[in-house]
Design brief:
Number of helices: 7
Largest sheet: 5 strands, parallel
CATH topology: Rossmann fold
CATH class: Alpha Beta
Structural class: alpha/beta
Oligomer: single chain
């Protein structure tokens, strides 16, 4: 299966991807575009620009062409789209130009696992982070992914709870012969 784990920042997404990767060694893991660019020593502004996010979107779309049959994606094009549509300079983003490519890329996924922000938070938000922006991205991702406001052809699983429970349920869904619910 080709599975993307999606959410806003500081929600437990990358931690869940790591846990799933350990529980499912037959799966390849694709890191999120932001981290891939950091490894390449790309310098992002503290608040990435529209151009920075478009660069990440391009990388995310390209990563959907990965040929591995069992792959866990830490983010997918819908995530980056959520950040772009939440950006203060959103008018500079040409959604109409990007949307067909995003739709094609998302069709290459078998499942999107969505982690919403919860109360209490799974991850403590550092004081250096903008909580309102994080919340706005979460709301935009709910609209894009859960409400399917752009008619993406995708199966979605919204998951909530502790990271240990999330990892156990997700592992079970992908490998039902070896349940591990984290209890």
């Amino acid at each position: 299966m080709r599975i993307a784990i999606s959410s806003t920042h500081f929600s437990g997404k990358s931690t869940l991807v790591e846990a799933l990767s350990e529980a499912l060694p037959q799966y390849t893991t694709m890191d999120e575009p932001y981290h891939l660019f950091q490894e390449e020593e790309y310098e992002f502004a503290e608040m990435p620009s529209i151009e920075d996010f478009e660069l990440q979107l391009e990388r995310s779309i390209e990563s959907m062409d990965e040929i591995a049959p069992n792959i866990l994606f830490d983010r997918c094009p819908a995530d980056i789209m959520g950040y772009l549509l939440s950006h203060t300079d959103v008018e500079a983003f040409n959604l109409a130009e990007w949307l067909p490519r995003i739709q094609t890329a998302i069709r290459k996924l078998d499942l999107i696992v969505f982690l919403p922000i919860e109360e209490p938070d799974r991850i403590v938000l550092p004081s250096s982070q903008d909580a309102a922006y994080r919340q706005h991205v979460d709301e935009m991702l709910k609209e894009i992914i859960l409400e399917n406001s752009f008619d993406f052809d995708m199966d979605v699983l919204e998951v909530t709870g502790s990271l240990k429970t999330l990892s156990g349920w997700a592992s079970y869904l992908l490998n039902p012969l070896t349940p591990n619910f984290g209890y």
